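Consider the subject:
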Amino acid sequence: MATNLAIDDQILNEALKVGGHKTKKATVTEALKEYIQKRRQSEILDLFGKIDIDPKYDYKKQRLRR
């Protein structure tokens, strides 16, 4: 899908250097992937303290089933 974006040239050129990609497209694609990953990680971090843990659960017992 072709998309035209007005991206700050200075930022894009710096991202090209830092990322080591050969094309602007590769740079933007990688940046978007990292953005998605970071957002998903923050959603997981938001769950800390909200999930009840069973103190009787023996995770080592699960390893022995294999």
The longest helix spans residues 24-45. The helical segments are 9-19, 24-45, 59-63. The radius of gyration is 21 Å.
